[in-house]
Design brief:
By secondary structure, the protein is an alpha/beta fold. The chain has helices at about 5-10, 20-35, 50-65, 75-90, 115-125, 185-190, 220-230, 230-245, 255-270, 285-295, 330-335, 355-360, 370-375, 375-380, 385-390, 400, 415-425, 430-445, 450-460, 460-475, 480-510; strands at about 40-45, 70-75, 95, 110-115, 135-140, 155-160, 180-185, 200-205, 250-255, 275, 300-305, 320, 345-350. A seven-stranded parallel sheet has the order 3-4-2-5-6-1-7. Strands 8-13-12-9-11-10 form a six-stranded parallel sheet, sandwiched between helices. The longest helix is centred in the last third of the chain and has 31 residues, at about 480-510. GO terms for molecular function: ATP binding; DNA binding; helicase activity; hydrolase activity.
Length: about 525
């Protein structure tokens, strides 16, 4: 037994694992003892369940009982350092293999921690001896960058750990690189047993058909920034925070640095305490910002994807998804940042501004990870498209103006159903907008004393008119920019003309008496 192994065997730690974590370790070691030496095993556990704790204790036990070495791989330098500290806290002396590390003393270590790209370079340069590595642990194993290193470890047991056993590249499914999946505790079980906080979600109906999908299968930064950096969208984000989480600590995720900066200025203009963080920040700036975020009770931090992994701040009360994604993994990573529990925190808030809830279901839903692992394409094919999601939206008046139409029993008008009815009767599609104008005029007249009141209310309907026109344009499959602009302008003119021509008659029909002159 090496001196390092002897030290590990003798050193005791103050780390106490929960029963489910001990159970996972036993289950994995049982597989380790019965499977071939080159077996590839994947372990799934939700964010916040303690994956790093589990594999750190595994490393400790492995080195105590085997005369071989361990290598832990991560995909980011921050995770390397955090993993190294966790291993040290378990009594495991380890060496971080980075681009600057001197490896002359590698024989003195039984455990190495490395970032995937650095390790790839060191292995190709023959700078690291891996001949006696018996166990390889891969953190955040859903990233495909790790698979290029598997060729170096053909005689090692490989354990991948992830919260979502779904590959970041649909062309490279995880089942092709791992022979088996072991699933850990569900999110619901962790919530019920007070290991994770429960989510309260506020999902907004978002029109996302302007977003484009890139070669990576997710929405492009360019199309996302065009939508989410618009003045209307920035105001919606500020209003959503004020309505659901004012005074609470919030982390905002965006798809693009420019959007995050725009969000920063929008919140600052609203008098809210906010900072922006992206990957251009220096280590010192990052530390200062994260310290401020930790210490300030009502702090708001807006970012892109830099904080989706390797960031633990249990004091977060609210996660704002100011973006859409087609990645289940990214969805769970972002939401998971708010799920850490504290003595005075048993729930947290999700504000979804990207239809992510409708696309993937609620965070913590009972997903069949075994089926997703074995048949990832089956799962991907069942994710709802934006068109299918938006087809179920019930567009009604915005809350800000609904009070102006309080005398109307129903302000909703179903453009899609009206179009279907018209087609079934063989009518022209134009009747859909004619009936919509009549309904808009009706609610204006119901809440007015004279035609001038009604015309004033009609101006408040701009957003509702725009939504109806966009739905109508999809129904008739004609949605060019110029056509939509003309249709919206024409609708508003016809609504005003209808009110001027029919106000007195319709007022008397509604109220039973003529308007005062």
């Amino acid at each position: 037994m090496s001196q390092t192994n002897q030290a590990i065997q003798e050193k005791k730690t103050d780390k106490e694992l929960y029963d489910y974590q001990q159970g996972a370790i036993s289950q994995i070691f049982e597989k380790f003892d019965t499977a071939p030496d080159d077996y590839h095993l994947l372990y799934q556990l939700p964010t916040g369940g303690g994956k790093t704790v589990i594999f750190s204790e595994m490393v400790r036990q492995y080195l105590k009982n085997h005369n071989k070495k361990v290598l832990v791989m991560t995909h980011r330098i921050e995770l390397c350092n955090q993993t190294s500290k966790m291993l040290t806290s378990f009594g495991v002396t380890n060496k971080v293999v980075n681009s600057k590390a001197n490896l002359d003393d590698q024989a003195e270590y039984s455990c190495f921690v490395a970032m995937v790209e650095t390790l790839n370079n060191r292995l190709n340069d023959d700078k690291l001896d891996i001949s006696d590595v018996g166990l390889v642990i891969i953190d955040e194993a859903h990233y495909n960058s790790f698979t290029k290193l598997f060729k170096f470890f053909e005689k090692s047991f490989i354990l991948g750990v992830t919260a979502t056993p779904l590959s970041s590249n649909k062309e490279l499914p995880m089942k092709d690189n791992y022979q088996e999946l072991i699933t850990g505790e569900t999110i619901e079980n962790l919530i019920e047993n007070e290991f994770l906080a429960r989510a309260e979600t506020y999902a907004y109906d978002m029109g996302l058909t302007s977003l484009e999908v890139g070669s990576n299968g997710d929405y492009t930064v360019k199309s996302s920034e065009d939508l989410y950096s618009s003045p209307a969208m920035l105001q919606k984000t500020v209003d959503a925070y004020k309505k659901h989480s004012l005074g609470k600590k919030a982390l905002i995720f965006n798809n693009g640095i420019n959007t995050s900066i725009s969000v920063y200025y929008a919140f600052r203009e609203a008098g809210l305490p906010i900072m922006h963080l992206d990957n251009t920040a220096t280590k010192k700036q990052r530390r200062q910002i994260l310290d401020w975020f930790h210490e300030t009770p009502n702090a708001i931090l807006t970012s892109v994807s830099i904080l989706t992994t390797g960031f633990d701040e249990p004091t977060i009360d609210t996660i704002i998804l100011n973006r859409a994604t087609k990645s289940l993994t990214l969805y769970y990573q972002m939401v998971g940042r708010g799920s850490r529990i504290l003595n005075n925190k048993s729930k947290f808030t999700i504000i979804d501004l990207g239809n992510n809830l409708y696309r993937f279901g609620p965070w913590g839903a009972d997903l069949d990870w075994q089926l997703i692992f074995k048949s990832p394409n089956w799962y991907a094919d069942r994710i709802k498209s934006d068109e299918a999601i938006e087809a179920n939206f019930k567009h009604d008046l915005a809350d800000e103006i609904k009070g102006e139409f309080s005398k109307s029993e129903d302000t909703y008008f179903d453009i899609r159903q009206t179009y279907k009815d018209a087609v079934a009767k063989g009518e022209s599609s134009k009747v859909v907008l004619e009936r919509s104008i009549e309904q808009h005029a009706k609610i204006c007249i119901e809440n007015s004393e004279d035609v001038y009141d009604a015309l004033g209310l009609a101006k408040l309907l701009k957003d509702d008119i725009n939504q109806r026109i966009e739905i109508y344009a999809k129904c008739i499959s004609k949605s060019t920019y110029n056509f939509l602009k003309w249709l919206k302008d024409d609708y508003k003119k016809k609504l005003n003309s209808y009110l001027r021509a029919n106000f007195d008659e319709k007022f008397e029909e509604i109220h039973g008496y003529p308007p005062e002159k």
